[in-house]
Amino acid sequence: MIQDDRAALNLKIDLSKGILISGAIGCGKTSLMNLVRPFAYQNFDYKIKTCREVSFEFAKNGFEAINCYTLKQANQSKLTGYCFDDLGAEQQIKHFGNDCNVMAEVLISRYEQFVENKSVTHITTNLSASEIENNYGNRLRSRMRAMFNLITFDKETKDKR
């Protein structure tokens, strides 16, 4: 968040990528993203939105609901930064009979913007890499490798709540 080139080099972190934090329920993933947010440079600021909320917005408003996460405004050079919290907790959603894996669509579109203009996305999840592939497909998992620095909490990490 503070763009420390030396520390990033030592930790093999690519500062142009977002963060994907994976770990057990209650280990502090969401709290960590809330705590570091005030330290982010303005160009790397982000909003936090739960994946369930994004899915419910789709159920209510259809594909238009996805646009605010995947399209730039006229005055923007890149997408607004987002941390999508709790990937995998959302349901497969229908809008007037149209089935959609909402978060897969959002992330694939954000990947295109990452490639085009380095728009940054962050994610927290309880899912393992294989569960991400099962839920969202190997195409998205491959793109996620390009988009994110992976930070994994050990499965023995104690519940922080």
Put the structure in a nutshell.
This protein is of the alpha/beta class and 161 residues long.
Write the layout of secondary structure elements.
Layout: H1 5-11, E1 18-22, H2 29-36, E2 47-50, H3 51-61, H4 64-70, E3 82-87, E4 93-95, E5 98-100, H5 102-117, E6 121-125, H6 129-136, H7 138-147, E7 148-152
Parallel strand pairs: 1-6, 1-7, 2-3, 3-6
Antiparallel strand pairs: 4-5
Helix pairs in contact: 5-7, 6-7
DSSP E strands, number: 7
Helix content: 40-55%
Using only CA atoms, what is the Rg?
16 Å
Total helices: the number is 7
Tell me the strand percentage band.
15-25%
**Describe the biggest sheet?**
5 strands, parallel
Gap between N and C termini = 24 Å
Mean pLDDT: 89
Low-confidence stretches: none
Pairing-aware structural class of the strands and helices?
A: alpha/beta
Helix and strand string, N-terminal first?
HEHEHHEEEHEHHE
Q: What overall geometry do the principal axes of the alpha carbons give?
A: globular
Strand order, largest beta sheet: 2-3-6-1-7
Description:
The chain is of the alpha/beta class and 161 residues long. It is built from seven helices and seven strands, in the order H-E-H-E-H-H-E-E-E-H-E-H-H-E. Strand 4 (93-95) and strand 5 (98-100) form a beta hairpin. Helix 5 crosses helix 7 (138-147) and helix 6 (129-136) crosses helix 7 (138-147). The longest helix is centred in the C-terminal third of the chain and has 16 residues, at 102-117. The radius of gyration is 16 Å and the shape is globular. The mean pLDDT is 89.
